[in-house]
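Write out the bound-state structure for flavin-adenine dinucleotide.
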Amino acid sequence: MLDWHAPAAWQEIRGEVRFHEPLRAHTSFRLGGPADVLALPRDTGDLQNVLALVRQEQIPLYVLGRGTNLLVGDSGFRGLVVSLKEGFREVEILQEEGDHCQLRCGAGVRLASLIGYSLREGLSGLEFAVGIPGSVGGAVVMNAGLKKQTIGQLVDWVLLMDRQGRVSRIERAKLCFAYRCCHLPPGSIVLSVALALRRCTPPDVQRKTRAFFLQKRSVQPVTAWSAGCIFKNPSQDTAGRLIESVGLKGYRLGGSRVSEMHANFIVNEGQATARDVLELISLIQKKVYLVKGIWLEREVETLLEEG
Ligand SMILES: Cc1cc2nc3c(=O)[nH]c(=O)nc-3n(C[C@H](O)[C@H](O)[C@H](O)COP(=O)(O)OP(=O)(O)OC[C@H]3O[C@@H](n4cnc5c(N)ncnc54)[C@H](O)[C@@H]3O)c2cc1C
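---
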């Protein structure tokens, strides 16, 4: 049997392959243990080769975006993490008609880069997403955005690869975007996405983007080590208000802390472990339930060996 922990097994892969890679370096929480293997395929063919080996050797697989909505366990991941951030970075205008402009972006493109592109080109639609630090692929999977504006509203179609390496295009209607989720066939990897934007003038786009940015910076700890909002907002109230109302704003557990600025953010103060964060999440859920009768559902995704 092939030893997939060894470099020889990955010779066919043209992109970078790293072994025993600390995942803390790939998440905005800056915590979590190592992955056995991290592969950064260069293109579709390279990704198909990675998946062929995954199938052949039955390697557990996790698809990572920019790790900005992710809590990785302290023991890391026994398997392969694949990230599209080194390839899959193309941005191109597919078609324009009147002021409508359809853009295709690779899943590995940083949202911030895409917003930079829209600012330069004078393309309107993505202004609300300024300050959301993930990749385009992660943003589609999470239907990232604000209360009333999300990336799903702009998606025309997505290009997916299944675990057999087959590529297919799924139209927006079938994606059923909802609050922080969308419907993708299980195991799909988002390769690229077509977004419907509107031609505008660069100063107009800049003005709107700046307003969203200032608003975000005034309410969220955007430079702290965190994974953004930890919980989804329940229908009755915001998670942040509920956490604050039960007296947990600023509460510290080990190296993790409920942000003083926004109680729905947990920040890593430098030495936090995933265990600290998980315990803090559980404590918040229990206290909010006891006092308010509302069970907060996690928004942050987890990659935990412990299950
Ligand atoms: C400071 C800060 C502010 C934030 N503000 C917001 C906000 O205002 N609104 C908001 O919605 N979110 C916010 N977030 C959360 C986060 O940035 C978003 O959820 C983002 O879309 C996650 O993208 P990512 O690439 O980091 O995905 P990851 O965290 O890497 O992954 C998220 C999920 O997507 C899956 N995934 C990623 N890429 C792919 C792919 N190509 N194919 C298939 N599956 C994939 C992963 O397996 C995982 O399940 C914030 C986070 C931080 C740290």
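---
The domain at 221-303 is CATH 3.90.78.10 (Uridine Diphospho-n-acetylenolpyruvylglucosamine Reductase; domain 1).
The pocket of flavin-adenine dinucleotide is lined by residues 28, 63-70, 84, 107, 132-135, 137-139, 141-142, 144-145, 189-190, 220, 222, 226-228, 301 (CB under 6 Å).
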